[in-house]
Amino acid sequence: MGRLGIGSHNLLPYQRELYEDLWQPLDEEALAQMLSYWDYNLDLLYQRKRGYAPNEPAKPRIDVYVEITSKGNLKAEWFPRGWNQWGPPADDFIGSDFARWRRAETRRSGYFTRPSNELFFLHGVEHALRTVDRPSRADNQPLVLFDHVLLQACHDVVIEMGVRLEPHFDVRMLTDVYVEWVPQGREAFALDAPPL
Which of 52, 56, 53, 43 is nearest to 97 (CA)? Predict the structure, then answer.
């Protein structure tokens, strides 16, 4: 912000909200809840033991979805492998690495809280994408450049999430964030589903 000659008071409302979200982006409560080993199907995990550590169970398999919501926010949710927000496929509950798991729309701490399996929620990302894609006036240039920085930070949140999950889980990213720098200096920020 100093290099661009702007302070937090100069930021547009969506930028200020996204900037504040990026200070502590990962939901520590959701991450801690994922490590509740008593919810794991330990019999199945020991059947799939790690080859290099035969006395340790395999990592629980999870799927992670990263998406831009209908209101333009970026979020990530996790589910046991093959599940979705409505639960397991009808024929696959026995094969799950989780003996007990339920997605709650709100947390125990309050009615207006986020879903229990949400790993992060960043406001205003779609607005930043539109601004970068179609910069308006030259006098807004520092703010447009700051949107580039904010979008790169959003990408870094996804990377950090993966780094935090990988030691404990076999993570499959069903959708992911890709950043591509093009010769004109503008970046392309996109959500995509990698090949399975």
Answer: 43
The 3-state DSSP class for residue 156 equals helix
CB 71, CB 180: distance < 8 Å: no
Residue appearing with tokens 């809280």:
113
The per-residue pLDDT for range 32-45, each reduced to its tens digit, is 989 988 899 988 89
The whole-model pTM stands at 0.81
Q: Is 189 helix (H, G, I), strand (E, B) or coil?
A: strand
DSSP collapsed to 3 states, 4-57: CCCCHHHCCHHHHHHHHHCCCCECHHHHHHHCCHHHECHHHHHHCCECCECCCC
pLDDT in tens, 125-147: 998 888 877 766 555 666 777 88
Burial class (CB in 10 A: 0-12, 13-18, 19+), 21: buried
Here the contacts of 158-161 (C-beta below 8 Å, separation 24 or greater) are: 158/66, 158/76, 160/25, 160/26, 161/26, 161/64, 161/76, 161/119, 161/120
DSSP state of 144: H
How far apart (Å, rounded) are the C-alpha atoms in residues 173 and 156?
A: 15
In sequence order, which residues have a C-beta less than 8 Å from that of residue 165 and are 6 or more positions away?
A: 31, 34, 62, 64, 78, 171
Q: What angle do CA 151, 28, 150 make, to 5 degrees?
A: 10
The rounded distance, in Å, linking the Cα atoms of 79 and 92 is: 14
